[in-house]
Amino acid sequence: MNSGQVSKATGVSQRMIRHYESIGLMPRPDRRDNGYRDYSPASIERLRFIANARDLGFQVDEISVLLGLWDDRTRASSEVKAIALEHAEDLARKAAALEAMRRTLLELAEGCSGDARPDCPILAGLAEPRRRPARQLTEFSGKPKEGV
């Protein structure tokens, strides 16, 4: 299959396919006589794996580790499970942080009359010093923000 066909079969853009090749997640495919890339069924399966892992929020370095485990038929499934559970915990922390941000925005919006007056409690609230403890403010890495 050429890259256009692979893109249609997997839902991954040709640009992303080339990117995954350039960073080593995908092996570079053989070339046909006409210069087109020629992807094997194994490459398509690997690309689907990468796309599904991305859809679940795994980062490139994590996908690389998962691919290594996938390729290693002697590995224990416990290694894979540990990575999945750690990622699930990270997603839970991110979801909690997003929910806290959403609640804060709703509280600020609730105080705003939304009329023609220039005073705006939302803008005033954004200008206030931070009131929440640092442990509640997390980046998407799940680690406390510096200097909060």
TrEMBL record:
PROSITE patterns: HTH_MERR_1, HTH_MERR_2. Its main location: cytoplasm. Keywords: Cytoplasm, DNA-binding, Transcription, Transcription regulation. It comes from the Bacteria. SUPFAM superfamilies: Putative DNA-binding domain (SSF46955). Signal peptide: none annotated. Residues 1-69 form the HTH merR-type domain. InterPro entries: CueR (IPR011789), DNA-bd_dom_put_sf (IPR009061), MerR-type_HTH_dom (IPR000551), MerR_fam (IPR047057), Tscrpt_reg_MerR_DNA-bd (IPR015358). It is found in: Cytoplasm. PANTHER family: HEAVY METAL-DEPENDENT TRANSCRIPTIONAL REGULATOR HI_0293-RELATED, REDOX-CYCLING DRUG-SENSING TRANSCRIPTIONAL ACTIVATOR SOXR. This is Cu(I)-responsive transcriptional regulator.
